[in-house]
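User:
Care to share a sequence and structure tokens?

Assistant:
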Amino acid sequence: MNRREFVRLGYATVIAAGAGKPRPGLGQSPAHPMSTLEPKATGHAADFSLRIAPTTVELAPQVVVSTIGYSDKVPGPLLRVREGQRVAVEVVNDTDVPEYVHWHGLFVPAEVDGAEEEGTPPVPPHGRRRYQFVAKPAGSRWYHSHTEAMLDLHRGAYTGQFGFLMIDPANDPGLYDQEVFLALREWEPYLSTMDQDEEQPGPNDPMPEKPAKSDPRPNGLEVSAPLYSINDKMLGAGEPLRVRPGQRVLMHLLNASASQIHRVALSGHSFQVIALDGNPVPAPQPVEVIEIAPGERVDAIVEMNQPGVWILGELRNVARQSGMGIVVEYANQQQRAQWSPPRKARWDYTIFGKTASHPAPDQTVDMVFEKVPGGPHGINHWLVNGKEYPHEREFVFRQGRRYRLVFHNRSDDSHPLHIHRHLFELVELNGKPTSGIKKDTVIVPAFGRAAVDLVADQPGLTLFHCHIQQHMDFGFKALFRYA
């Protein structure tokens, strides 16, 4: 029995017991750790403050992990502002190492974006730095550490340094009764020879980039984890999400993981997906399963029309039983929480798009991604167009031009690809065209291909990378420059 199995089985009893408890006080107003909003920014000298410091997270009774967090909260404080508002965030670093805070999905200058590669100054050890920016675009954004970790699994995205940043549009119809923020997360990461926990491709899945001959070299070490949570609690350990029949609940889902793609479902219910990465989709659709990769956000409305006590959780039994879930409890219901697998588990971005032609790009940029297996005791390295980072002046934008980036994934891993400080429009995924879907992070499946269109409208250094921390640290990134 390996370490993962030992820890998982040890905590499965605690989680299962907690998930089955009847909950008192069911007629009260909804209560969830992230359903109460933080005060909005006021426009004064420092609208928000964040303190980077060691903290502990009690995931479940007798399950406590040590990490680094923001302001003694995991997730960090919910920052909520108006679109177009000038915002100042004072960050104090109470650790012995420099840190970077990345404002994921925002249009901000490179020196504010929070990436060392773009020239952003760090928050010095036992020092402070003020980040100032105009809050745009509207939608579900987030903030997180962008510090390089390499083999130190106690730095960067492996820590609890992440939080929600909500930019409210000028006109929000508010067609919902309750709003909740749910971050998917793993804990206690370790290096393992196990493959990443993602959905295995089906026999009919298109793989346009699969080579005729497989790479015979053994795979290297990847990052696994034995514990999972939604926000700061394992399944059954925290307060349930309390709802009433007939309510419309707006769920803001975030994958704050450093390493894993997740698929979640809510037994007996469907998700009406209305936005991807904070951007409204052209064609909202109901789905039974949401697939969400590190860095991605999904906003969905759930109609509460199946009274009972249910589990919103990961499809994989090992992850759900190890904590990735939350109990959803209707008023006046006392039974044990129920889990039933969804009937349709496939995820397809393109169903949320529309059929329309795209303007011809001014230039097409092909980006080929390959894995260099590290062997059973080594670390995999990653190549972009045949080399690891850096790519000196290989990728150059000219302001105002439209670029089509074609991602060729010639590896057996799915990759969430993120571009800083810009939005892109999904044009094609594995040969299937679409239009109108705006994102900042996109999953390119194993041996798959995606094409996105981007307008170069944010001058300055722009980082591109896989949002899996280990992949980014070991070569999977590139820097776009403006001419």
User: Anything to note?
Assistant: Confidence is low (pLDDT under 50) at residues 1-33, 35-43. Helices lie at 3-19, 110-113, 317-321, 469-473. Residues 174 and 410 are 43 Å apart (CA to CA). The first helix runs from residue 3 to 19.
